[in-house]
Structures are given as structure tokens and as C-alpha cells.
UniProtKB/TrEMBL annotation:
One GO BP: bile acid metabolic process
Signal peptide positions on this chain: none
InterPro entries: NAD(P)-bd_dom_sf, Sc_DH/Rdtase_CS, SDR_fam
Name of the protein this chain belongs to: SDR family oxidoreductase
Alphabetical list of Pfam families matching this protein: adh_short_C2 (PF13561)
Length: 267
């Protein structure tokens, strides 16, 4: 199916690693003009090197999305260069493990600003460059928005905010023919997960609540993002799409595997 994404201008925050990077490559395969940002020079260099080795030439900028001025300048620069922006995938976020009653105010501010405030600001700053021709905004939620892990409280709160922001923006931007949706991953093999849940709890723990009994790969989120961004999803807006291998959809997801004597895949 032709998704009509060729030459579309696509901006991805947190596009140099994990889910964001996999999504950048899916859009590049569709012939889109892809611009990513993240903070660290190492990740940007490695992203550009990988892209070049695959024959792609995306652009990548060093931007901290939690800083209003940096985010605004970045979006304005891209918008003014191309004259418009067709698609925003707001994906940048930080995980943070701490019980809420032990959390420091600085950490609260950092996570709220990086994960939630930046999503709202991105939509606001991009509007002047999207409102004439219409477009698509995809935010990155998390299953933690619905069922949180207690020790990752502030992260879960930001993702609950993303779910609400998705629906509110979908309503507010519908008159401009801008659709707003979110993807809501379960456990996906990325640096964020390797450094948090996989390190502290291990792979079987990460898989046990999903009926597919495995974690996902970044490209398994990337492809649905491309779908939501494309005209194939032209009547879908305000949706938060779970991409989790069926996490928390039954109480005993491991039971059929055990009862049928089939070993679980984990990855
Ligand atoms: N992996 C999962 O299981 C999972 C589950 C649910 C939801 N999610 C969500 O999926 C998204 C991507 O996560 P991931 O697992 O792919 O994580 P990841 O591998 O850690 O990648 C995160 C990306 O965001 C960038 N980033 C972080 N803070 C930033 C900031 N302040 N400004 C700009 N860029 C920033 C990082 O680059 P720099 O370090 O260079 O800034 C990196 O490119 C996040 O929104 C996350 O909450 C992931």
C-alpha cells in the first residue's frame, strides 16, 4: 500500500535511539524528509552514521525538549526552512524510578517537563507550520498511563497526562485537519527498558503479564506510528493505541503456555 509519505516533512523528538530511531528509519524507507532531535552528540552521530550506511540522509539536531527556547527555535527553524511540517512524532521522554514520597522536586520537574510539558509545547509551536495544509501528530504514551508500576510514579503520571493531551489536542486541532493520536507501548527492548525494568526485575518479569509472553522490538511500535501518520488512518483521531503484546488483558496470560506445554519466547 502506498502510504503517500514521500517527501512529507516529519519531525521526531527523541529520534536518535530506541523507538524514535526505528520510526525514523520506517519513515525514511517511505521516502519522507525526516528531521530528528535529541540531546546527546554521541546518539546523534551514531544515528547519522547508521542512516548513512543504509543510504539515507536525515537531519539531526541537538535539542533538549524540556527547554522551551531550544524546542521553539528548533521547530521554527525546521518550519521556516521547509515552509511547513506535515507530521510530528513526539517521542522524547525519560524514565525515572522512585516512589512518589521519596521523589525530589528537581526530579519531578525534569520528568514532567521532558515527558509532558514538551509534548504540549511541541504541538503549540508546530501549529503555525501545520495549520494551512493539515497534518498528523503522534504522541508517545505508555501502558503505565493506565496501569502504573508503583515505583515509577512520576513517569506514569506524565503518561496519563499524554493520554488526556491526545484527546484534547485531537478536539482542538480537528478544525485545522490535524489528527492527533498516541501509541502506548508495553515493554519494548530499548535503552530505557534495559536500564530500568530489565536491569532491576529481569526479562521473565517484563514478559509475564502479556499474553504473547515476550517484549516488543522498537520497529513493532514504529510501523503503527507510520500507519497513524499516514492517510490510511485518515478517520482516526484522539486514539491511544496499545502496542503491548496483550498486556493486562487477562488475569492469567501465562496459563495457556503452561497448559499447552509451549515454552515462552520472552523476546
Ligand atoms: N521502551 C519501552 O518499553 C517503552 C514503554 C512505554 C513507553 N515508552 C516511551 O517510548 C518513548 C521512547 O522510549 P525508548 O524506550 O525508545 O527510550 P530510549 O531508547 O531511551 O530513547 C529515548 C530518546 O529520547 C531522547 N531524549 C531523552 N530526553 C530528551 C530530551 N530532554 N530532549 C530531547 N531528546 C531526549 C534520547 O536521546 P538523548 O539521550 O540524546 O536526549 C533518545 O533518543 C518514550 O516516550 C517512552 O516513554 C517506551
Amino acid at each position: 500500500m502506498d502510504l503517500h509519505l514521500k517527501n512529507k516533512v516529519i519531525l521526531i523528538t527523541g529520534g536518535t535511539a530506541g523507538i524514535g530511531k526505528a520510526t525514523a528509519f520506517e519513515f525514511l524507507k517511505e521516502g519522507a524528509e525526516v528531521i530528528v532531535c535529541s540531546r546527546s552528540k554521541n546518539k546523534i552521530d551514531s544515528f547519522l552514521k547508521d542512516a548513512e550506511s543504509k543510504g539515507f540522509s536525515p537531519s539531526a539536531f541537538s535539542v533538549d525538549v524540556s527547554k522551551e527556547n531550544e524546542l521553539k527555535s528548533f521547530i521554527n527553524e525546521i518550519g521556516n526552512t521547509y515552509g511547513h511540517i506535515d507530521i510530528l512524532f513526539h517521542n522524547a521522554a525519560l524514565g525515572h524510578m522512585s516512589y512518589l514520597t521519596q521523589l525530589k522536586k528537581d526530579a519531578w520537574d525534569t520528568i514532567i517537563n521532558t515527558n509532558l510539558t514538551s509534548a504540549w509545547m511541541s504541538a503549540k509551536f508546530i501549529l503555525p507550520f501545520m495549520k494551512t495544509a493539515g497534518g498528523s501528530i503522534i504522541l508517545t504514551c505508555s501502558l503505565a498511563s493506565k496501569i502504573a508500576t508503583t515505583s515509577v510514579g512520576v513517569y506514569a503520571i506524565t503518561k496519563s497526562g499524554i493520554a488526556s493531551l491526545t484527546r484534547l489536542l485531537a478536539s482542538e486541532l480537528a478544525p485545522y485537519k490535524i489528527r492527533v493520536n498516541a501509541v502506548s507501548p508495553g515493554v519494548i527492548s530499548s535503552d530505557m527498558v534495559k536500564e530500568t525494568v530489565l536491569k532491576t526485575k529481569g526479562l521473565p518479569y517484563a514478559c509475564h503479564s502479556a499474553v504473547m509472553q515476550r517484549i516488543g522490538a522498537p520497529k513493532e511500535v514504529a510501523k503503527p506510528v507510520v500507519f497513524l501518520a499516514s492517510d490510511a488512518a485518515s478517520f482516526i483521531t484522539g486514539e491511544v493505541l496499545d502496542i503491548s503484546g496483550g498486556k493486562f488483558i487477562v488475569q492469567d496470560p501465562w496459563a495457556p503456555w503452561e497448559d499447552f506445554g509451549i515454552s515462552v519466547p520472552y523476546i
